Each structure stands twice: as structure tokens, then as C-alpha cells.
Amino acid sequence: MLVNPFDNRPGHIWLDGQMVPWSDATLHVLSHGLHYASAVFEGERAYGGEIFKLTEHTERLIESGRILDFEIPYSVAEINEACNAVLAKQGLKDAYVRPIAWRGSEMMAVSAQHSKVHLAIAVWEWPSYFDPEQRMKGLNLDLAEWRRPDPRTIPCKAKAAGLYMICTLSKHAAERKGFADALMLDYRGRVAECTGANVFFVKDGQIHTPTPDCFLDGITRRTVIDLAHARKITVNERAIFPEELSGMEECFITGTAAEVTPVARIADWTFTPGEISKTLLTDYMDAVQPKQAAAA
After folding, report:
1. What is the pLDDT of residue 97?
2. Which among 120, 61, 122 is positioned nearest to 92, based on CA atoms?
3. pLDDT by residue (tens digit) across 203-244?
4. CATH number for the domain including 239?
5. Domain match, 105 and 207 both
6. Would you say 209 and 237 are in contact if contact means Cβ atoms under 8 Å apart?
7. Beta-strand (E) ranges in 69-155?
8. Of the candidates 273, 139, 125, which has an alpha carbon nearest to the alpha carbon of residue 196?
9. CB 223 within 8 A of CB 258
10. Residue 194 lies in a domain
């Protein structure tokens, strides 16, 4: 049972250029985005009152809309300003930020060229995605039955709502078996990603991570790769096959929600959260803090 449902919370949501009471931020049941998944979104985090890599997220939101053949009717600067305004309106410093754009209800068919494109931004308090006490012990992951599809069949470079259907199915199946999440393979049987996070492995002091050719190249993923390079740690972006996992020493996942979280087990493969995982977790948490707060 939901203790605090998301349709009944205090505060305001930015909707199509206006701050509206949280419970009034609604859409029509015949919106195209609901029926045909013509919606794109971002997941962002604010630390100390600043949204980490806000512009990168906003640029990706606009690009995701373009990939889905619609134009979000606001500029990067306008969306950034709106995100910061909602954060301030909610009175939060450490929070999750969710911009979402979708086609409205003007047309109810597969085609929807004349449907209005809406944009909403909500902000809420959200602690670490995983239990803090368990985080450094490492997560236990299942191996998902669903696979990331061929990029010729989906707009894999967009952060689009419809692409998460198999993620929800995979995570539900994993949680029913007592796992925190699931690792997904791709259509070729290669290691891809988790249901909402990218995955990294460590062997002989080097990092190995799947090439994001059929799934999202996460902003947190790129940040962690940059942090590894700054530490002079070699990062190999390549095809990784499941049979290789038995030789990997460490594993961790990355994402706006997951941040950097070590993994102890994937199905029958086991890993030991080690120095590289811990170092990059620390470096990432340092990187997301506002500069003035870090300097203080």
C-alpha cells in the first residue's frame, strides 16, 4: 500500500509555464502520451540546492522529444529556470527533479502531428535509491528475462517512457524473488544495463563497461567514466558477454537515482565491493556537491 501517493502531496508542480497546486497538475485520460507512450522525461538530483548537470539533462530532454518527432515548446534556458523555480518553490535542497513532456489529447490515433506538447516539472524529497546500510555491502541482482531490443526497433537514444515497460516487468520479477534489481542482456545476448542504471565491472585494476549502442548512455555513466580517467584508471567500453562475469572482481551500477552503488551478486556470479568501486563512489558524491558547499 502506498503510504504517500504521488497524486496527493503538498506543494506545487510547474505545468505548461505555470505553478499549479500539486493535486491540480493533471492531464486528460485521452492524452496521446498515455495511450501511445509519446512521452519523454528526465531524472535529476539536486544536492545542496543545485541540480547536478541540469543543462545536460535539459538538452537530452529536448533531444529525446526530437527523436520522438515532437518539439518541446521551451528553450534550454527556460526549462532550466523552471526546474530551479520548482526546487525553490518546494523549499527543498536535496531532492529529485522530474521533467516530463508528452503529447496531449487533440488527436487520438497513432498519428498525432497536431497534438499539443505539454511539459511538467515536479520536485520531491527522495533519499538514496537503495538502503544506505546495504549500499557498501553490495546489491544482489537477478538476471532479467527481458532483453534490450535491437536499436532498429526502438528509439534507444531517447529517454522515452515506453522503453521502460520491460524495465518495470524485470524489476518486479526481481523484487518478487528478493533481489534489489535485475541485469538485462541485449538482443544479442550481451550484457547491457540494469532496469534503470548502467553497469560497470572491474578486473585487474581496469574498468569494463558495455558499449551503449542499444541503451541509454547515462549522464551519471559519463560522469563516472570522467572520474575514472581523472584517477588514471583505464576504462574499456566494449561488448561484454555473460560468461565473462565469472572473472570480474568488482561490479557497480550508476544512475541519477542509484548514484554509484556496488554490486555483490548477479544471479550466480559474485563480486567483492573493492577499492575502485569505493573510490568512484566517494569521488561521485564529492562531485555532485555544490562548489560553495564543498569549499566551505
Report:
1. 98
2. 122
3. 999 999 999 999 999 999 999 999 999 999 999 999 999 999
4. 3.20.10.10
5. no
6. yes
7. 95-103, 117-124, 139-143
8. 139
9. no
10. yes
Check the CA dihedral 128-129-131-134 and report its sign: negative
Name the residue with cell 560497470: 200
Question: Please, how many CA atoms are within 13 Å of residue 14, restricted to the half-sphere of its CB?
Answer: 25
Among 124, 154, 175, residue at a domain's last position: 124
Domain that holds residue 34: 12-124
In terms of DSSP H, where are the helices of 1-156?
32-36, 54-67, 76-89, 132-135
- Is 213 strand, coil or helix? coil
Work out the burial of residue 205: count CB atoms within 10 Å of its CB; fewer than 13 is exposed, 13-18 middle, 19 or more buried. Answer: exposed
32 and 38 Cβ atoms separated by less than 8 Å: yes
Active-site hit among 93, 137, 159, 232? 159
Cell numbers for 60: 537530452
Q: Which of 124, 143, 173 is the last residue of a domain?
A: 124
| Cα separation, 49 vs 38, whole angstroms | 31
pTM for the complete prediction? Answer: 0.94
Same structural domain, 137 and 47: no
CA distances from 159 to 39, 41, 146 (A): 9, 6, 18
In this structure, the answer to whether residues 170 and 278 fall within a common structural domain is: yes
Distances (CA, A) of 66 to 60, 71, 74, 262: 10, 6, 13, 34
Q: Is 137 assigned a catalytic role? A: no
Q: What is the pLDDT of residues 86-127, one digit of tens each?
A: 999 999 999 999 999 999 999 999 999 999 999 999 999 987
Q: Which residues pair with 139 in a beta bridge?
A: 263
The x, y and z cell numbers of residue 50, run together, are: 543545485
Judge whether 77 and 201 are in contact, CB under 8 Å. no
